[in-house]
Amino acid sequence: MDAESLKSLAWLVVWGGLFYVMMRYGCGAHMMGHGRHRDAGAAAGGSGKDPACGMMVDPEHAKAAAVRDGKTYYFCSDACRNKFEQEPAKFIKTGSQEAHHA
Predict the structure, then answer these.
(1) Better-predicted residue by pLDDT, 76 or 32
(2) 49 pairs with which residues across the strands?
(3) Among candidates 59, 54, 61, which has minimal Cα distance to 84?
(4) Any bridge partners for residue 56, and if so which?
(5) First CA to last CA across the chain, in angstroms?
(6) Which among 74, 73, 43, 45 is positioned nearest to 57, based on CA atoms?
(7) Which of 5-9, 41-45, 55-59, 76-80 has the lowest mean pLDDT?
(8) Within 10 A of 17 (CB to CB), how many other CB atoms are there?
(9) How do residues 1-50 score in pLDDT, each as one tens digit?
(10) Residue 68: CB atoms within 10 Å
């Protein structure tokens, strides 16, 4: 292999590595099902979003859950669940609140 071929191969490896990192951890993470961009909760019929902090939560891997009025809410931590259980009305949007903000 000559020097030019090695240089081309090195650039290919660099760009391939950058592409992998972006797809795995960056902007492409939601396309591949990785990272925090994923809304798995909605697909599983659950909340999908921690009502206390707004973080996206995968119901299958949620740290905590609570049931209120027949609906299951998923949380990123016990602390968020505890906040929710102390003042659920503060975190649950009713139909009139949603219409007001629409």
Answers:
(1) 76
(2) 56
(3) 54
(4) 49
(5) 63
(6) 74
(7) 41-45
(8) 10
(9) 799 999 999 999 999 998 888 877 776 555 555 444 444 444 444 448 88
(10) 14
